[in-house]
């Protein structure tokens, strides 16, 4: 969540130049549109992976398989209808719906069999989301300013430059926000000290 969500938001904002980095000149408008919609599914996939790992860790492998099957059934049952309604985006929506239902089932089983409270997870997820939204605004502004001087559709190199600068500034912004909000300290604990200057560690 700490790394995947900012990556998802950044990729959604920079869908156009990111697509052009790999597929310059090939169905740019359609590709950009699909990438922008599909990027958030990466977050659902990462949550599903963790969800399944936790179920296996508490010796509930059968429930992990059931969660996967439920998701596939939802995906397949919605796929045709949504594709007819929304074309390529419909398939993405069906995939997202399958993941969401699987996650709901999986988290419910974790709570039932492990007694895990999701209160802290929800609090930190909200904080990460707020920080990522702010980072996304920064990336959007940087992208808009760069677009005045660099047309990323002209060449793959231009797209790389736009993506590189926007990602660097967005990443630095997010790192600063997570550090100042003490989110990194809460999530990484003592491991964070290895990345802090010696002077700061001695003061603390």
How would you sum up this structure, described in words?
The model is unreliable at 199-204 (pLDDT under 50). The chain has helices at 4-13, 15-23, 28-38, 41-57, 61-86, 88-114, 119-149, 156-180, 183-188, 198-203. It contains 10 helices and no strands.
Task: Please specify the SSE layout and strand pairing.
Blueprint: H1 4-13, H2 15-23, H3 28-38, H4 41-57, H5 61-86, H6 88-114, H7 119-149, H8 156-180, H9 183-188, H10 198-203
Helix pairs in contact: 1-7, 2-3, 2-8, 3-6, 4-5, 4-6, 5-6, 7-8
Strand content: under 5%
Radius of gyration: 20 Å
Query: N- to C-terminal separation?
Result: 28 Å
How many helical elements? 10
Which class best fits the helix and strand makeup?
A: mainly alpha
Helix content: over 70%
What does the main sheet amount to? none
Number of strands: 0
Pattern of helices and strands: HHHHHHHHHH
Shape: flat
In round numbers, the mean pLDDT is 87
Residue windows where pLDDT falls under 50 for at least 5 positions: 199-204
